[in-house]
Amino acid sequence: MLLHTIYLIAICAEAISGALMGIRKDMDIFGICLIGTVAALGGGTVRDILIGHYPLGWVAHPEYLGFTICAAIVAAVAARALHHFKSAFLVVDALGLVAFTIIGCDIARSFDNFHPAIVVMLGMVTGVFGGLLRDVLCNEIPLVLRREIYASVSLLTGSLYVLILHWQIDGRIATLSSLLLGFSVRLLAIRFHWELPRMDKERVRGFD
Amino acid sequence: MLLHTIYLIAICAEAISGALMGIRKDMDIFGICLIGTVAALGGGTVRDILIGHYPLGWVAHPEYLGFTICAAIVAAVAARALHHFKSAFLVVDALGLVAFTIIGCDIARSFDNFHPAIVVMLGMVTGVFGGLLRDVLCNEIPLVLRREIYASVSLLTGSLYVLILHWQIDGRIATLSSLLLGFSVRLLAIRFHWELPRMDKERVRGFD
Amino acid sequence: MLLHTIYLIAICAEAISGALMGIRKDMDIFGICLIGTVAALGGGTVRDILIGHYPLGWVAHPEYLGFTICAAIVAAVAARALHHFKSAFLVVDALGLVAFTIIGCDIARSFDNFHPAIVVMLGMVTGVFGGLLRDVLCNEIPLVLRREIYASVSLLTGSLYVLILHWQIDGRIATLSSLLLGFSVRLLAIRFHWELPRMDKERVRGFD
């Protein structure tokens, strides 16, 4: 229940983030809605295609498409005003990343024979690939591959969730504690600009 | 029958458009053929993957690959001459967009439980995603997200088609009337440079 | 057996090539591992999705993910030293291209009703699409569409393999001879800079 509510809020937030990127790339209103929808629902879509889990979420629940399209249109109309809610977006995006991850792990776990590492991996795909597809369509190197820790939060959340469930502890406790951990770490990462190590580009000179 | 003939002509036209783009990007003949094939068959492929509809069209009918590869090679050889047929291409492309959409809706309708909005959406994916994948492979922001109304024509065509069928009217009437409407609107859009509204990029400043 | 050993070595080599590209694009260690994994396992993943062949290889064998991630991390740490092994990489990459192709043909052949042309095509997808996805994620026009003959080697290898099997000749002979032919042609192509024909860009002027 809680997770589902967070999910619906999060797809709207992701749709808005996608829409803003579409505006910045000078797209028309169709493009803005499409980028918003891809940003919001792309992660779950990629996950379901990777495991052959049909029908896709938004095919079974067309209202999800309605939500993301409405959110994208609102973003396009109210873009200037949204500026004031910038930090609210970061918070909702963090919540969404963690909720997407847990939902992704749950769906992967419904396939009996998946290794725990694959479950965590598919949770990460759910959390991260929407933004990745958004950036590919906007002709950018995906931010998630370069940004302060983001995908790592997803991996951490998924690992904790799978671990707690492995100990046969109640599902609600697993959900709440991994939600809380992931969310806190992500907010701290934003606040203190935590980044994963990067390599010196000079070191690969001569490989072109 | 009519639809199938239009389909075969349209995949050749799309393959030629893809091939010309490949030439412009300095690709070799393999790249030119691949981009042409993706432009022609990519939309249907994405649709089938999204709904788990196997085997894919070109897997069941390898001759489609033959057509698109031949069309791409012809385009590569006769590129300079094709210049004179520029407006013919726009007409065939418009026909193709509309035919792809109707075919996509038909395949989606063969899944009993799909909501009409999903059927229209999958028709649009069929019509539009070939060009979108072509542009992603050529490292461009997809034209379809920024161009004079194109995807919207697809949505309009699909909606009319689904609506007429919903009224239990004969399938041929549904096909012909939505084909005609979509085709006319697309040609008018090209002629008069109809565009969807776009947002002022200044309004999203500060979101980077 | 031989093929499987080559496969494991090849996915590590591809993961390293992906990782080096990630470093060059200033990605963090997560991005480096993801690009490496996509480069190594992306081709087989695309093939399996195109034919609905589940579970995917790395879902059934999570250890493949372990190999590619380790290889990517090693590449990130030892990037400067890898420089000295540049030509070794080209050799392993050539072996990988050919091995991927044959494995891809084998899996496609397990679907009884596939046309030989589709089998060869799916072998090529297995060999080539990992590098293609890597380049799309790194915001480059895929090298494979422009480079000295690479995909063509894959098509040649697959065609020979399918042809020999069609003649009812022993599978091991088919594997070995197509492996050898493809590998030699690829090395010769690198050595003598063989390229497929390219078209003069001037010829498509006026099509923009």
UniProtKB/TrEMBL annotation, chains A, B, C:
Domain Glycine transporter: from-to ranges: 6-78, 91-164
TM helices/strands, residue ranges: 6-23, 30-52, 64-82, 89-111, 117-137, 149-167, 173-194
GO cellular component, one term: plasma membrane
Cited InterPro entries: Gly_transporter (IPR005115)
Pfam families: Gly_transporter (PF03458)
Entry keyword set: Cell membrane, Membrane, Transmembrane, Transmembrane helix
UniProt membrane topology term: Multi-pass membrane protein
Cellular location(s): Cell membrane
Principal localisation: membrane
Signal peptide: none
Family per similarity comment: Belongs to the UPF0126 family.
Name of the protein in question: Trimeric intracellular cation channel family protein
